[in-house]
Automatic annotation (TrEMBL):
The keyword NAD does not apply. Keywords: Porphyrin biosynthesis, Transferase. Signal peptide: none annotated. The lineage of its organism: Bacteria, Pseudomonadati, Bacteroidota, Chitinophagia, Chitinophagales. It catalyses: 4 porphobilinogen + H2O = hydroxymethylbilane + 4 NH4(+). CDD domains: PBP2_PBGD_2. Pathway: Porphyrin-containing compound metabolism; protoporphyrin-IX biosynthesis; coproporphyrinogen-III from 5-aminolevulinate: step 2/4. InterPro entries: HemC, Porphobilin_deaminase_cofac_BS, Porphobilin_deaminase_N, Porphobilinogen_deaminase_C, Porphobilinogen_deaminase_C_sf. This is Hydroxymethylbilane synthase. Tetrapolymerization of the monopyrrole PBG into the hydroxymethylbilane pre-uroporphyrinogen in several discrete steps. Residues 2-207 form the Porphobilinogen deaminase N-terminal domain. Its EC number is 2.5.1.61. Pfam families: Porphobil_deam, Porphobil_deamC.
Length: 304
């Protein structure tokens, strides 16, 4: 019986059950093991103040290394770009929506010049979302919003905020996307947003081979490019770095950016390359971004 480690939130359990079902398709029985993460315990401190790399994955990593579980299932955007020694990526599932959503309160909330000039309060714990929102709507205020999807939806409902930003994939997977939501097509996602990854012990060759049967090649490639871009920029959840790679017609389309925390400064990159030439491009694009103004933004963030 394979033991699948998961956080206790509704979304995390949904993701773990997806992996359980995929294992079942291979004739492998599995059970869920529930483990609390540090990110689930402290729901008040903004993520970018918590030294957040691995805040949602560390407890599961420890359980893997202690042989308490055999597999760990994560939202891939939460996983540090450098895995702990002894732990390997076993599979990446096919990506769902990469987009962010704004859940707003009231029909008057219209995306036009009036919104840019109005005084709105938007909630998010993501420094990436905060920076991109302020870059577009500098007159708005940003409030911290922590907790699992259900908790954040409840906090939004009980608040005086005008809206809050969520990942579309998370809400859609557990059928909680409300009608009063708008896709933020202009907002680039966190690297690997919308993807689910499975990790196991490096020496568990049999389980690595089993999980490889449901690894999605295109999602694996795109998320690797995005995470290489992030790592080369020395970024994490406390840095406003975004990246999106997409495959179409044997080409990889890549967009990435880095912003100052206050959203006042932004440097972007937009590239297209053949899949056959895509190896290592995440690092190459990061170097190009830094050379074209990104380094100044990165240095400013590191000093704070």
């Amino acid at each position: 019986m394979i033991r699948i480690g998961t956080r206790e939130s509704q979304l995390a359990v949904w993701q773990a059950n997806q992996v359980k079902s995929l294992l079942s398709d291979q004739g492998v029985e599995a059970e869920l093991v529930y483990i609390k993460s540090e990110g689930d315990v402290d729901l008040k401190t903004p993520l970018y103040e918590m030294g957040v790399q691995g805040i949602f994955t560390r407890s599961l990593d420890i359980a893997l290394l202690n042989n308490t579980i055999d597999l760990a299932v994560h939202s891939m955007k939460d996983v540090p770009t450098q895995l702990p020694e002894g732990i390997a990526q076993a599979a990446v599932l096919k990506r769902a929506s990469w987009k962010d959503l704004l859940i707003h309160k009231g029909e008057h909330f219209i995306f036009d010049d009036k919104l840019a000039a109005s005084d709105c309060i938007i909630a998010t714990s993501s420094i990436r979302r905060k920076a991109q929102w302020l870059n577009r709507y500098p007159h708005h205020s940003i409030e911290n919003l922590r907790g699992n999807v259900n908790t954040r939806l409840r906090k939004l409902e009980e608040s005086n905020w005008n809206g809050a930003i969520f990942a579309a994939a998370g809400l859609e997977r557990i059928a909680l996307r409300p009608e009063n939501s708008v896709e933020l097509d202009w907002m680039l996602p966190a690297p690997a947003q919308g993807a689910i990854t499975v990790a196991c012990r490096t020496n568990d060759k049999s389980l690595l081979q089993t999980c490889n049967t449901f690894n999605d090649t295109n999602t694996d490639l795109c998320t690797k490019i995005e995470r290489d871009f992030l790592r080369a920029l020395l970024g994490g959840c406390s840095t406003p770095i975004s990246a999106l790679a997409q495959v179409s017609d044997n080409q990889v389309y890549f967009r990435g950016n880095i912003l100052s925390v206050d959203g006042k400064h932004k440097v972007e990159i937009d590239k297209t390359i053949q899949i056959s030439e895509a190896a290592g491009i995440g690092k190459i694009y990061a170097a190009e971004l830094l050379a074209n103004g990104g380094q100044e933004i990165a240095d400013g963030i590191q000093k704070k």
